[in-house]
Design a protein that fits this description.
This is PRC-barrel domain-containing protein. InterPro entries: Bac_photo_RC_H_C, PRC_barrel-like_sf. It is built from six helices and 14 strands. By secondary structure, it is α+β, with helices and mostly antiparallel strands. It folds into two domains: 116 residues, PRC-barrel domain (SH3 type barrels); 79 residues, SH3 type barrels (Roll), CATH 2.30.30. Strands 1, 9, 10, 11, 12, 13 and 14 form a seven-stranded mixed beta sheet that branches. Strands 2, 3, 4, 5, 6, 7 and 8 form a seven-stranded mixed beta sheet that branches. A hairpin with an 8-residue loop joins strand 4 and strand 5. The N and C termini lie close together (8 Å).
Length: 230
């Protein structure tokens, strides 16, 4: 099922004994375009706390109703490894999280056990930042990016700017990002179109820009986004 990112954000996660929070953000791998972590705000029962939750822990969902179930107790969530929202997610942190939630890693041989569920594993070593042997104590860093961050980025076509990222369509069976929702209001008022992720040529984090391999004319013929369909 394809779900718009704005429909996922804000969804309440119902645990075994109580609500454990709501989805605040989604972290995706900018190489594989797969959601790797849900950023969960624990709300009033655990004030000032956010946790990372592996998407395979979603047991059942009713996204139109804004709810999903997770087979977790509030104590399991409370005991989740702490996450600093302003710090990059290291591989060591991911290992601790996946061990805590008893979920196979999405990278390396263990990640292959997730292939049957459609959740894409990552080969060992892919997604790690290059290591400089001249610098000691470097953390292993993954290519994880925030959906909240990318929403609002400019879309640069092959000839000129064509709008900005309004959201993403995500397949909730394997948590892959399938399409970008693009708002073209600056030159084509009232239109939002869908661009397949295969057309993304690159992302410049410094310039807050997503480059695509399509011209403005090509984007005119792209499928129009209907919010009621997701």
């Amino acid at each position: 099922m394809l779900v718009a990112s704005d429909k996922l954000k804000g969804a309440e996660l119902m645990g075994i004994d109580q609500s454990v929070g709501s989805i605040h953000d989604l972290l995706f791998d900018d190489e594989s375009w797969v959601i790797r972590h849900l950023v969960v705000d624990t709300g009033h029962w655990l004030p000032g706390r956010q946790i990372l939750l592996p998407p395979p822990k979603i047991d059942a969902s009713d996204w139109p109703a804004g709810t999903a179930k997770v087979p977790l107790t509030s104590q399991q969530v409370k005991d989740s490894p702490p996450v600093e929202s302003d710090q990059p997610v290291s591989r060591q942190m991911e290992i601790q999280l996946y061990q805590h939630y008893d979920v196979p890693y999405y990278w390396g041989p263990a990640g292959a056990t997730l292939a049957g569920s459609g959740y894409s594993p990552m080969p060992l070593g892919v997604g790690l930042m290059p290591v400089d042997p001249n610098i000691a104590d470097q953390p292993e860093r993954t290519h994880l990016r925030s959906v909240n961050e990318v929403v609002g980025y400019y879309i640069q076509g092959t000839d000129e700017e064509v709008g900005h990222v309004e959201g993403m369509l995500i397949d909730d069976t394997n948590w892959s990002i399938q399409q970008l929702i693009v708002d073209t209001r600056n030159w084509w008022p009232g239109k939002q179109v869908l661009l397949d992720r295969e057309h993304v040529a690159g992302i410049s984090w410094a310039d807050a820009t997503v480059s695509v391999s399509l011209s403005r004319d090509s984007i005119r013929s792209a499928s129009e986004y209907d919010p009621t369909s997701t």
